[in-house]
Fold this protein.
Amino acid sequence: MSPNADPFFPEIDQIPVLESHDTSTDLGFRSYDPDREVLGKRMEDHLRFAVCYWHTFCWPGADVFGDGTLGRPWHSANGDAMAMARQKLDVAFEFFSKLGVPFFCFHDRDIAPEADGYRESAARLDEMVEAVAGKMEETGIRLLWGTANLFGHPRYAAGAATNPDPEVFAYAAAQVKHALEATHRLGGENYVLWGGREGYETLLNTDLRQESLQLGRFLALVAEHKHKIGFEGRLLIEPKPFEPTKHQYDSDVAAIFAFLQKFDLVDQYKINIEVNHATLAGKSFQHEIATAVAHGILGSVDANRGDPQNGWDTDQFPNSVEEMTLAIYEILRGGGLGSGGFNFDARLRRQSIDPLDLFHAHVGGMDTLAESLLRAATLLEEETLQGFVDERYAGWKSGLGREIVEGKQTLESLHAEVATGKIDPAPRSGRQELLENRVNSVLRR
Ligand code: XUL
Ligand code: CO
């Protein structure tokens, strides 16, 4: 905190690591222990937790039917915008430190409010980036990723890179150049592009082919600039199928992979997968992770959840060990998140107005993911599933299977072999129920 700032969370010193059955306080970790070794690596280094600046400190608790409920002092309508940004920064770093997370994430506009005109907005960002750098140095907290808000201002109503107006493309390019450089200045480990309004509301006024070319060009320019400035972090694209637009171009992992291939960008981008965006796309989070792992493009995770009865982005904190275990199992099998992490892109419910609710929410999310990591490690160590899968695909490792994938067989040669009568495959059980029981037995331990 700034030397004179009063703590915003005076009741909290540091969230303690407790024994798993300790019920003496609600605000303690029962599964998360940063130093605990899991598969030869510290828990903190597996999970690499990050708090998101936007939901946690910028969102006032408003929805389309009502005003903000959270009443944070820095949300006041008549305060000086930069003074409030500095107060928010103090509170944010107090929170990160007391919670004990190693990382945070931000949009340019989260840390520095937009002013009248580009130059003044950019100057505000520069000023706040230096203030953030000071806080990072003071606390040792690092930046998991930075990003640019290309969806809030009315100029982006019809998209940023995919806007029908090239001047909006130019404005977005300027903003991303600056946010990427700010991320670089702060030692960010990744830079995220979520396609905020890159999509359409109606096909009646939309040229899909043109917008796709624009998006391809934009992503190429960002990759080019990353190399030019020597930013060694990874570029990540975050899929979401709809909301705010009716259809978003980066709808899911498979759609982005196809897009990256078309524009020859597969080596430049990885994916930031958000749990509830997978749900909205009609996929499980496990599916999205497994698809990214299969294509070698898994980057990072935005951890939250939706509500099974609601079709919108409720951004609730994760609380299902069952769901997260299977996803983390896929992450571990794929070799982990590398320089990615678990960012809590999650917000409180509108009625959770006590500042301490922020701690309850994050502690619950961190414990859920830590417990899931432990269960996933067991699935891996005990080969609960892998042995069966290996055996199921063993035919592809040698003989006929290997010849097929290595291109040594043709339709004609395969036809000839089948016609001899030597090939007559017998169906085998997929054993789904048995495997589900095995997973449940690990979850119940
Ligand atoms: C929106 C969303 C964003 C991105 C960053 O649904 O998830 O907050 O994570 O722009
Ligand atoms: Co997100």
